[in-house]
Design a protein that fits this description.
Length: 136
């Protein structure tokens, strides 16, 4: 045994051999941990289900965004410059964006007008619409 220690000391392996063994131990532990937590071979993956409104999906409406301009910053509106810009993203028959400029500012009036223009129920509009206000 003293001969082995003398060979390790003279060759410099007395320092490098334990360091290499320690590195190999860390590598194996990391591999095992990664395989356990990130491996998906044994796990069943549930399919992605989108929570959408079926009535609106049948109509092909993806989203409705209403920007209410109470400060008169909207140059496209005529007359009373305080208006609402409504952007509707429709996916049927082809994906497109519809823009409406309404001289209305109350959410209930906007919902009623959009329900009439898109030929859907006001409840469907209420569930899909998102309001924003313009702040100068």
């Amino acid at each position: 045994m003293p001969a082995l220690k003398r060979i390790l000391t003279h060759s410099g392996l007395e320092f490098w051999l334990p360091l290499g063994l320690l590195g190999a131990a860390f590598w194996l532990a990391g591999y095992g941990w990664t395989h356990h937590y990130l491996g998906v071979a044994g796990r069943a993956i549930d399919p992605l289900v989108l929570a959408t409104n079926t009535a609106a999906q049948n109509e092909g409406i993806l989203s409705i965004r209403a920007v209410i301009d109470n400060e008169g910053q909207n140059p496209a509106a005529e007359g009373d410059r305080r208006a609402t810009r409504v952007e509707v993203i429709v996916v049927q028959p082809v994906p497109r964006t519809l823009d409406f400029y309404l001289p209305l500012r109350s959410p209930s009036a906007i919902e009623a007008e959009m329900a009439q223009r898109l030929n859907v129920s006001p409840g469907t509009i209420r569930r899909l619409i998102r309001y924003e206000t313009v702040r100068p």
